Amino acid sequence: MRVLVVCTGNTCRSPLAAAMLAESLAAAGRPDVMVASAGTGAWEGAPASEGSYLVGLERGLDLSAHRARLLTRTLVDEADIVLTMSRPHLARVRELGGGGRAHLFGEYAGLAGHPADITDPFGGDLDDYRATMGMLSDLMPAVAGRIVENASP
Q1: What are the catalytic residues?
Q2: Which residue among 21, 68, 94, 108 is least crowded, i.e. fewest CB within 10 A of its CB?
Q3: What's the DSSP call for residue 152?
């Protein structure tokens, strides 16, 4: 199974979410589920933002090897599930053929009382990045659990 996580620049939210998801899936005994990320407006090859890199380190995630990728139809076609950070990302994925495989990250978690969109910390301070990390952390067990349920053995 392949999961693609999508945001705008592929330097803040989606690299964090992808790293957290891969870690959660490995802990659940599913390291075979491939997790990647891309951005609807990514600058190819850009590193993770400093804020994402630093809050990732605080949580034990190393984003130093991350390089941004532009979302393409091929990436969407190769994914079994596409999780987006906001509604405009979802619309773009669906334009590229994602259809029913595309979901808002927060809605995919299925937890009442949580926002469907994940706040973009770009341009903010470390507290903004920590807040985004907190949103992702709150939703991650449910997202990973649902993927594990839907993944073939």
Answers
A1: 7, 13, 120
A2: 94
A3: -
